[in-house]
Hints:
The structure is a single chain. The chain has a single domain (13-244), classed as Nucleoside Triphosphate Pyrophosphohydrolase, CATH 3.90.79. Helices cover 27% and strands 25% of the residues. The protein has eight helices and 14 strands. The strands form three sheets. Strands 1, 2, 3, 4, 7, 8, 9 and 10 form an eight-stranded mixed beta sheet that branches. Helix 2 (71-78) crosses helix 3 (85-103) and helix 6 crosses helix 7. The chain is globular, with a radius of gyration of 19 Å.
Amino acid sequence: MQLNSEIITTPPRASATVVLLRDEPQKGLQVFLLRRHTASAVLGGAYVFPGGKLDEADCASDVHAYLDTSPQVLHSALGEPDLPPHTAAGLYVAAVREVLEECGVLYARLKNSEALAHDAAQRQQWQQALHGGQGFADMLQSAGLRVDTQHLAPWSRWITPVQPSVTNKRFDTRFFVAVLPAGQQPVHDNIEAIDSVWLSPMDALTRYWSGGLPLAPPQIMTLVSLLPHANSASVLHAAKMQTPPLVLPEPFDDEGVRTLCYPGDPRHSVAQRAMRGPTRLRFVAGRFEPARGFEEFL
């Protein structure tokens, strides 16, 4: 992972990320990670959660007609009073669309059905249609689907600082947690993602620490935030009991070492802690890590 010192003056681009969860016997809570293509302009080679940019079409009324919940209810769930309701709904649409595009998982119900669409061949066709340029609203209409937003729970919001450190772009990303639908299995698309893996949060952090799983700071800190939870039900309960925390990392150089501090750190402009785990990460030997080592994650 290469360090970036460029100052980006353009506004952050709204985006949505889905932390897919499942419960495995004897293994407990697991999360799904994709490895981005090494040629990717954003976090090439790193393991990330499925997600992508908010498109203008995601905020349009024609696609919102296929939502199972009103934009006003979704707006309330995000806990951002200044956000327009159509943008809030668009972020849910973007999350569902991106997780279908990137790994073939679909949070949508067939018309007049309470079951999520789980036929693998159908989902693959819909995924290919999106890759081929078909609009999401057109796909939903032709397939007779309505978007299921009830499986998605807002978890956090991350805004890239003007000095992004590991990318030359800025994003305003809403992280959602969602349980993998029954009968579905995510598969990386071999286009934007070249590998994928299910791991417990602890296993993912352990592999990261040993050098086998490249991770960017938002993924690291999200995994740390999941460590207290034994299963997906616990995560979803916690999500429903909170207002999604806003995390705006603030970078500074500490004796020549790039350091990111988070809310609650003495150097951060926000005194109240936003998430559990270390309040700062230092860029050492090509990756960000806590100053006091792995134990600080715990």
